[in-house]
Amino acid sequence: MSKKKLDGIGVKDLLDNIPIPAFIIDNDHVITHWNVSLEIASGLSSRDVVGTQDQWRPFYKSKRPTMADLIVDGVQTPDLDQFYAAKYHPSDVLQGAIMAEDFFPDIGKGGEWLSFTASPIKDANDDLIGAIETLVVITDRKKAEFELTEREKRYRELSQVDDLTQLYNSRHFYNELGTELERSRRYKQPLSLCMLDLDFFKRLNDNFGHPFGDQVLRKLGFLIKLHLRSVDSAYRYGGEEFAIIMPQVELQDAFTAVERLRLELSEVVFRTATGQVVNVSLSAGVAYAEGSDSTGSLVSKADKALYKAKRSGRNRTCY
Ligand SMILES: Nc1nc2c(ncn2[C@@H]2O[C@H](COP(=O)(O)OP(=O)(O)OP(=O)(O)O)[C@@H](O)[C@H]2O)c(=O)[nH]1
Predict the structure, then answer these.
(1) CB 213 within 8 Å of CB 201
(2) Is the ipTM of this complex over 0.85?
(3) Could you tell me if the CB of 205 is within 6 A of ligand 1?
(4) Which PANTHER family match (predicted)?
(5) Residues with a known catalytic role
(6) 200 Cα–ligand 1 center, Å
(7) At the N or C end, where does the chain have fewer CB atoms within 10 A?
(8) Which 8-state DSSP code applies to residue 105?
(9) What tens digit of pLDDT does each residue of 14-61 get?
């Protein structure tokens, strides 16, 4: 008995009983159905739009095809790009249907994100007779996704950046050095690596206190950043040891750049808590990447040069 009643139910009744906004257009792009959920969402009554081609009206400022119109016209990828560049994909579930997500600035107060799917409607002979489009507001989900992406970005930055000096930390150093080494090999471009180490830093800490040592580290971090070109990257490699990766820089130029930095630091006047004036120096080692170098061998070359600078009296740069 109840089955018979359901057999007789029309498309309009069915559509009006689902909580998802939906409309149907025929092959002439004329609206045949506009359900109650879409009336509520769009503020347009079915009486006013059925029989028209106004399906674009709730979504756009001026007339343009909706996804359902493109389905009716048989528009395929990549021509869909013209209207929904990189925002659509074929439905995993329905054959011939296209799903898309987009932001509609003219809907609601500040705009809404919609997820919409348009599917072809075919008759018993498999001929296309129209298309149905359903819409879901996904603004809250999108907001949550954006917030999550931002948090992840911030977290990644925090886990890569040293708090004290605001330079990258050593974890990030090895990733980046590997990438730059690979790039220099592939494009046959020079790559230099500099290791810097403050001289007698233990003595500074012991004599003037840890906070004073921190102040020196911060200042050196600041000076390094000041001197960096946009393609260089600097790292706090260890306690008072720093590294600078210099892509596209020959050994001699890297040497000159580090020397400039060393001289600048030597001219900075630090003042201790008791007002004492202190000068600080650094030693540096510069190495140049050769075709056969790994990250390990390049770091080792730079470290050896740094050791040489320390051994031969400090406050100098060696390669
Ligand atoms: N203030 C401060 N000191 C640190 C930090 N990290 C490491 N150090 C100190 O840096 C000092 C490094 O000392 P050493 O490795 O003996 O080297 P050095 O005294 O600079 O001697 P040379 O490198 O041979 O000139 C140690 O006393 C560490 O405690 C930090 O974040 N802040």
Answers:
(1) yes
(2) yes
(3) yes
(4) DIGUANYLATE CYCLASE DGCM-RELATED, REGULATORY COMPONENTS OF SENSORY TRANSDUCTION SYSTEM
(5) 240
(6) 7
(7) N
(8) T
(9) 999 999 999 999 999 999 999 999 999 899 999 999 999 999 999 998
